[in-house]
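Human
Can I borrow your eye for a moment on a structure tokenisation matter? Give me a protein, with the fold worked out from its sequence. Write it directly below this note and I will take it from there.

Assistant
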Amino acid sequence: MDKKSSPQQRRSSLGIRSQRRVREILGAAREVFGEKGFEKTTIFEIAQRLGTSEATVFTYFESKRELCMEVLRGWYYEISAELEREVALVEGFRGRLDFVIRKHLKHLIEEGTGICALVLSEGRNVDQEFTDLITDIKRRYTAPLMAALAAAQKSGEIRPDIPLRLMRDMVYGSMEHILWGHIQGKPLPDVNLTASQLSDLLWRAFMPPRQQIEALVQFRAEVADALHRLEQTYA
């Protein structure tokens, strides 16, 4: 293999049949890495799942590490492209915030728990190449939210005094905590309910002080109205 070119460049020059084989290997590897994690996964098991040999896998991927990195890159680029298309179609920052949170929880809890565990565990790896990959895929994946935050801050929809990166970390950091709990064996949370609760909590933290006061006034009015109706009921 040409050591001067990247693994992606080497595989992009393959013929149609070989590219199909690469996709099959990546599909099987995603399943096994998701089920067992990096350390417990073997190339032999991936090959077995495909009904082929380890030599065939090594024809396209030089090592288990390279294969794992390509699995993560491919999966995250898929969901990043989907997010980039769909977030732009949602009106207003409040709606976009809710959409991003709901989408993230559905992707990683309902569809990709194994891959999520792999990212969270391997993301703490000291391997520089792997660390660079995680940084790259997270940058692209969080870019739609960062763009929505920047636009909302510019328009006055959200507070101007909180750094964008801090708000981004509040969103994804809170979800990572939820995901870790699920990975470590806690019951599967209700995704829609959790998304609604988290979205509402973060929105209240991000909204401008004036809107916070208005929301509090409205809440007090609603409570007063409810109490009045309760008194009328039992009068």
Remarks:
- The domain at 1-62 is CATH 1.10.10.60 (Arc Repressor Mutant, subunit A).
- Residues 87 and 219 are 30 Å apart (CA to CA).
- The longest helix spans residues 128-155.
